[in-house]
C-alpha cells in the first residue's frame, strides 16, 4: 500500500504506513489479523503467548504445544502475506527461549520483546536478518539494554518501542505511575529514549528508530508522534474491532459496549498492573476475591500459583474464545472510543488519510 506518509525504516525493512500492530495475547493477534495488517504495508505482529492452547494434542506439555502452535501460526501468517511480519515474545514467559528459537528458525522479520528487559535476546537469535526490537518504558531501560547488548553481543537494537502508561495489557509501570499518566506521558518518553538510542546509534554508526506506543488512537495521534521525532507508532486497541482480528465476536463486542468508566486497571498475578474492560470477573478481582484454579501452564516466571488470585492465562484464553464470564478483555485507555467493527483495510485507510491531513 503506497502512501504519502514517511517510511518506517528498520534496517533494510521498509514499513509504510509507519504503523506496527501491537501483539495481543492470548491469540487475539494471530495469523488472520497479522497477515491482514502486513498486506496493507504496516507491520502485522503475532503474540506468542498461549498459542498452543488450540493445538489438537493437549496431552503435550505446555512448552511443547506452545512451540508447535507458534511455528504453525507463523507459517500460516507468512503463507497469507508476502510482506514482513513480526512476533511479540514477552520476557516473563517461562518458555521465552523456546519461542525465540522458533521465531528465529522461521525467519520472521522482527522479534518485539517486552514485559521485562530482553537482555538475553541477541544471544538467542542466529539469523542476522531478524530485527530485534525491545519495548521500554523509560530512557533508563533503553540505556541498560543498549549498554548490555553492545558489551555482551556487539550489537544494538534495530528499533525501540517506547510504551507509555495509556497502553493496553500488562504495563511496564508501577500502579502509582499508571494512576498518574500525565507524569509519564509517552510524548516525554519518546524524547528521552530517542536521546539515549541516538547517542548509541551515532557511536555505532547505525540508525535506531523510535516507535511510540500507548494511547495512539487516530491519525492525529500518529502525526503528533511523527512530528515529535518518532519514526512510527505501535497500535493495538484499534485493531481488536476489525473483522480479521482473531478474537471471538463477544470479545470485540466488549469494546463496543464499554464506557470510559468501564476501562479499569487491575493487579495482574504477574506483578504488573493491567488495563482491562470491567465485567463481573473483573469486579471479583477488584473486590480482592480469589478465583480458584489449578495451574495447567506455569507460563509466567513471576506467577506463584499458590498465592495468585486467579489464573491470567485461563482468563485470557476464555476471553479470546468468547467466554467473558470466566475472563476479561484487555484494552488500551481508548477502548471506549471504538464504536464499530471494520476491516483492517478500512481502518488503515482511515488512519492514513487522517495522518496525512494532520501532517
Could you explain how this protein is built, in words?
It is a single chain. By secondary structure, the protein is α/β, with parallel strands linked by helices. It is 38% helix and 14% strand. It contains 13 helices and 13 strands. The strands form three sheets. Strands 3-11-10-8-7-6-5-4 form an eight-stranded parallel β-sheet. A three-stranded antiparallel β-sheet has the order 9-13-12, covered by helices on one side. Helix 5 runs parallel beside helix 7. The longest helix is centred in the N-terminal third of the chain and has 19 residues, at 62-80. It is globular.
Helix-strand blueprint:
Layout: E1 8-10, E2 13-15, E3 19-21, H1 31-39, E4 44-47, H2 62-80, E5 85-88, H3 96-106, E6 110-113, H4 121-124, E7 131-136, H5 139-153, E8 160-163, E9 169-170, H6 175-179, H7 186-204, E10 210-213, H8 219-227, E11 232-235, H9 237-240, H10 249-257, E12 263-267, E13 273-277, H11 280-286, H12 312-321, H13 344-358
Parallel strand pairs: 3-11, 4-5, 5-6, 6-7, 7-8, 8-10, 10-11
Antiparallel strand pairs: 1-2, 9-13, 12-13
Helix pairs in contact: 1-2, 2-3, 5-7, 8-13
Amino acid at each position: 500500500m503506497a502512501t504519502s506518509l514517511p517510511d518506517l525504516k528498520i534496517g533494510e525493512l521498509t514499513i509504510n504506513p509507519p504503523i506496527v500492530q501491537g501483539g495481543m495475547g492470548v491469540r487475539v493477534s494471530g495469523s488472520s489479523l497479522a497477515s491482514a495488517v502486513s498486506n496493507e504495508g504496516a507491520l502485522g505482529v503475532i503474540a506468542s503467548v498461549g498459542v498452543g492452547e488450540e493445538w489438537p494434542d493437549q496431552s503435550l506439555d505446555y512448552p511443547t504445544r506452545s512451540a508447535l502452535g507458534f511455528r504453525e501460526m507463523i507459517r500460516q501468517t507468512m503463507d497469507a502475506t508476502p510482506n514482513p511480519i513480526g512476533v511479540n515474545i514477552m520476557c516473563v514467559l517461562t518458555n521465552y527461549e523456546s519461542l525465540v528459537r522458533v521465531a528465529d528458525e522461521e525467519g520472521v522479520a522482527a522479534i518485539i520483546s517486552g514485559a521485562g528487559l530482553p537482555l538475553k535476546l541477541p544471544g538467542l537469535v542466529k539469523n542476522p536478518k531478524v530485527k530485534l526490537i525491545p519495548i521500554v518504558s523509560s530512557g533508563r531501560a533503553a540505556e541498560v539494554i543498549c549498554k548490555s547488548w553492545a558489551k555482551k553481543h556487539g550489537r544494538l537494537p534495530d528499533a525501540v518501542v517506547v510504551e507509555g502508561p495509556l497502553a493496553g495489557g500488562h504495563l511496564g509501570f508501577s500502579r502509582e505511575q499508571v494512576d498518574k499518566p500525565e507524569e509519564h506521558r509517552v510524548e516525554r518518553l519518546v524524547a528521552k529514549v530517542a536521546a539515549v538510542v541516538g547517542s548509541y546509534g551515532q557511536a555505532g554508526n547505525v540508525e535506531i528508530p523510535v516507535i511510540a506506543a500507548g494511547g495512539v488512537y487516530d491519525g492525529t495521534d500518529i502525526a503528533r508522534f511523527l512530528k515529535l521525532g518518532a519514526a512510527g507508532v505501535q497500535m493495538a486497541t484499534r485493531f481488536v474491532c476489525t473483522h480479521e482480528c482473531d478474537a471471538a465476536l463477544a470479545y470485540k463486542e466488549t469494546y463496543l459496549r464499554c464506557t470510559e468508566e468501564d476501562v479499569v486497571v487491575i493487579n495482574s498475578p504477574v506483578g504488573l498492573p493491567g488495563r482491562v474492560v470491567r465485567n463481573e470477573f473483573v469486579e471479583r478481582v477488584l473486590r480482592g476475591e480469589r478465583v480458584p484454579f489449578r495451574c495447567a501452564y506455569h507460563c509466567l516466571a513471576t506467577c506463584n500459583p499458590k498465592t495468585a488470585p486467579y489464573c491470567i492465562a485461563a482468563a485470557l484464553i476464555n476471553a479470546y474464545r468468547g467466554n467473558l464470564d470466566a475472563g476479561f478483555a484487555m484494552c488500551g485507555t481508548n477502548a471506549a472510543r471504538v464504536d464499530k467493527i471494520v476491516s483492517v483495510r478500512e481502518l488503515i485507510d482511515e488512519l492514513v488519510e487522517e495522518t496525512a491531513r494532520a501532517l
